[in-house]
Design brief:
71 residues
Length: 71
């Protein structure tokens, strides 16, 4: 689910592509390898993944709210 969200699939449904989900999965794989190479603590790797998913969910909502207030 996390890789799909990073790839652009909307949590509410109706948006996203297979290519986006695949790119999100590749991104998470690379991110996991980089974090494991830098820090061997599995909890830190999980924290990085959770923060990334949170940002991918929160930032579009924040951008939408800001855009609606400007207009």
């Amino acid at each position: 689910i996390a890789s799909c969200v990073v790839g652009g699939v909307a949590m509410g449904g109706g948006a996203g592509t297979i290519l986006g989900a695949a790119i999100g999965a590749i991104f998470f794989g690379i991110l996991s390898q980089v974090v494991m190479a830098v820090v061997t603590n599995i909890y830190f790797q999980s924290l990085v993944n959770y923060l990334l998913v949170f940002l991918c969910i929160a930032l579009p909502a924040i951008w939408k709210a800001v855009r609606n207030k400007r207009v």
